[in-house]
Amino acid sequence: MSNLDRQAALSVCGGRGFVVAEPVRELLTPRHVRLGESTEVRRLLPNLGRRMVGAWAFVDHYGPDGIADEPGMQVPPHPHMGLQTVSWLHEGEVLHRDSLGSLQQIRPRELGLMTSGRAISHSEESPKPHAGFLHGAQLWVALPASDRHVEPHFEHHADLPAVTARGLTATVILGELDGVPSPGTAYTPIVGADLALTAGAEARLPLDPDFEYAVLSMSGEAEVDGVPVLPGSMLYLGCGRTELPLRAASDAGLMLLGGEPFEEELVMWWNFVGRSHEEIEQARQDWMAGPRFGEVKGYDGGRLPAPELPPVALKPRGRVR
């Protein structure tokens, strides 16, 4: 999914200097952003308080939106570089097209994973006809320097493994959880998991103490390490945990995001992740003027123009503002 904010901010993130080395309970409040005519997202990362969780660098939560009489998601062709996009749905469907020629309908709890590498473009839209509700999350994973220029590719995994306990099913989206790996390609030590809890469930999820973690609430009433987390909010948990207590007052859906703290400092602007202002500026010029990002065929509409770069000097600020 694109960052459609026309006032896209240029920021520097990453580095280990601001990683919280012990367990914490830091509740992150979302920023509301419009995507097209009928979709509003709650943006949790980058956040005023925190920019990354492991290699996770961007998190949008949207829905549940009633779209029976609406066009639903309509994100025109737009570019990406230096990152992976993770599409995750609880309700509805999204049709993915990209400049490699991929055409894939993504359904609830199926992984759509696009590795942009050096350059790719794609579009996302609700198919015609489509379901009456749309609910999901769109996430980005920053690629490390050793892999950020890989050839772009797209993966679709309809069957994902799960870790189960009484009242809990943890579907492994990316990376590894409790020794269970996802089939999706990962480039850093990372974990992403969908947590489905039944009403009254109490469980303890095993964690890696070397990872930092956060939990996004998708739906229902749940407590994470004793903290109530409402849908559309995210609780940052820091490092140093070997397990995570979970409790659900109703059926609830959460997403666990974690990973080894990201070593490198990144420049992230609009839909690009790079290492310098000059690299971002060149990517913008290439999208507006040339064939570097390829062509998305079959989308009914024009491609998304890039916003203007702000005239600011970059000031490294690490992982938090």
TrEMBL record:
Superkingdom of origin: Bacteria
Cross-referenced InterPro entries: Pirin (IPR012093), Pirin_C_dom (IPR008778), Pirin_N_dom (IPR003829), RmlC-like_jellyroll (IPR014710), RmlC_Cupin_sf (IPR011051)
Ranges where the Pirin N-terminal domain occurs: 41-141
Family, as annotated: Belongs to the pirin family.
A Pfam family assignment: Pirin
Protein name, per record: Pirin family protein
Residue ranges of domain Pirin C-terminal in the record: 193-293
